[in-house]
Design a protein that fits this description.
By secondary structure, the chain is mainly α. The protein has a domain of 54 residues. Helix content is 53%, strand content 0%. The chain contains 3 helices and no strands. It is elongated. The model has no long low-confidence stretch (mean pLDDT 83).
Length: 90
């Protein structure tokens, strides 16, 4: 569930909360070649930049998704204005 891409943000929950994707079962069984270890300060800086970028992009996606949902909801909205003499249920 946390590794599934959310259609409203365009990112996985892991990417939004952790700033990276977690390993899948296949990656644990068949590991990819390891990368050279980076200094901690460089890793933290890259992680921070990644999370800022992901959250900015997710905000833009959410704004577009909200506009899309509002448009769809407004289309289904019944727009029958009532007049003073109309009968309504109380």
């Amino acid at each position: 569930m946390r590794s599934a891409v959310c259609r409203s943000t365009g990112f996985t929950a892991n990417r939004m909360m952790l700033g990276r994707e977690v390993y899948t079962t296949a990656e644990l069984v068949y590991p990819l070649p390891t990368h050279e270890a980076k200094p901690v300060t460089e890793y933290v800086h890259n992680l921070e930049q990644s999370m800022v970028s992901v959250h900015e992009t997710a905000r833009k996606c959410l704004n577009g998704y909200q506009a899309h949902m509002k448009r769809d909801d407004d289309v289904r909205l019944c727009q029958n204005p009532y007049r003073v003499s109309d009968l309504v249920c109380a």
